[in-house]
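Forwarding these from the shared drive since the link keeps breaking.
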Amino acid sequence: MSVHTEPDVAPVPPLGLRRDGLDPDPRVTALREHDGTCPVTTLAGHRAELVAGFHDARTVHGDPAFRFETVPPPPGITDELTAAEMHRRRSGMLLAIDPPDHTRLRRMLTGRFTVRAMKALEPRVAAIVADALTAMADGGPPADLVADFALPVPSLVICELLGVPYADRGGFQERAERTLRSDLTPAKRSQVIRASREYMATLVERARRDPGDDLIGMLVREHGDRPAAEGGIDGEELAGLANLLLIAGHETTSNVIALGALELLTDPDQMALLRAAVSDPDPAPLTRAVEELLRHVSPVSAGFPRVASRDVVVGTHEIRAGTMVTASLCAANRDSALASGDLDHLDLSREPLPHVAFGYGIHHCLGAPLARIELRIAFSALLDRFPGLALAVDPAELEFRRDALIHGVEALPVTW
């Protein structure tokens, strides 16, 4: 099946990745409101069609007609990324593979990421959060909420879960951040991806020699003794799977913490609602607040692009076989199809809406239960420890990530 990449057409902007501060880009909002599609450039440099409505996003993410494994190599490096190299690079990457391999690998992890399994981690998450807040307090105001709290908390949690040395965080955090930026050339991004996999491959090899009680060790012990054809997992798959969990496990949650804090620090009414939810013995108000923050912040701006394996209807749009499509998750989460009222406004008292902040369908984020726990504990402890928390700069001075797959703020200076 050929993929319609239209290389001779003039370049189009990475509109699906663009944000306007905390909001979707106005042009993406207009696209949703007019039920349109438009050509965009993806993070990897492909040309794709962008949809922005909630139901359209769920169709693109949920209809098995849309597949990952026919996405071609990024333009400009097709000679380097042979078919064999593309297969190797996709190995284990749950967000780049389709059933049956996706089904086999996800099944290995499902039991470790249930709500019940994640709740068992709550005491350790609480301890990590408390330690980060103590270090932040000891440093005295002002502090950078990104570097001092939002980033280290989920990083340490996912490191302990996987068995990745936290001392290596400088390297993997930098590689993750660079991988998600749109200003990297395809060749540079390829180098960073290769370096990330090589790093994880060394940890996999160590685990094969001496598997621990962490997730990588579990996969080695329980599934690493047989090939994929017999339901097992090979070294390439394990490295790719662990690398994805490492990146996704800290990048998304850290940016919800930082952007959520910014939302609250610039909206006193919503901050008051969150304080009331934190102090309420009933967990329901805090659960509502976390879901609303996830919906409104939508850290992943657009879903990974997929290719239609056949002609398929997405809402009112007829998508031809071979067309690459991506969906704006941040715009979809503000769609009036979700509920009545002003969905561009954060409302922590709102009943939870069926947002797509974690994606949808078989590729729905495996770590969603863990992220919710981290967010609940992080915001509760942050407000309890620093009741006078406030921005230390004018919000207009803040610098947001530009055209990145995962939206964020570069730094968030705060005082208390």
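-- next protein --
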Amino acid sequence: MSPALSVGEVVTERTVHLTRESLVRYAGASGDFNPIHYRDDVAERVGLPGVLAHGMLTMGLSVQAIVPWLGDAGRIVEYGVRFTRPVVVDPEGGADVHVSAKVGAVDAETARIDLTVTHAGTTVLGKAQVRVRLA
């Protein structure tokens, strides 16, 4: 992490590729076996545009983007998002989720890192903010 942070500074960017296999693995790890996360017929029946990535998976992979920059995940003191759009995971091509992390505010002890999380050019997490303890 930089010794002096500037508001507006991009601290990291990351793109994560999700596949249907990623969703099945996450379902097993989380215990969330809702079929909208792995069955096209169920997703279609309930009016969804396709199989969706778990919201918590999207949230988790987004905050993970700043951990290498931080050096210690234990410095994260608060994290919150609003789920604004789903991540549709194509059965053949999967889905790419892009995360850009920018310094939103800095005070004497903490910094607020604002995450911009997009899929297919659309923001999927709104007001995604991480408060981190400064070194």
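Residues 10-133 form a domain with the Thiol Ester Dehydrase; Chain A fold (CATH 3.10.129.10). Residues 30 and 73 are 20 Å apart (CA to CA).

- D.
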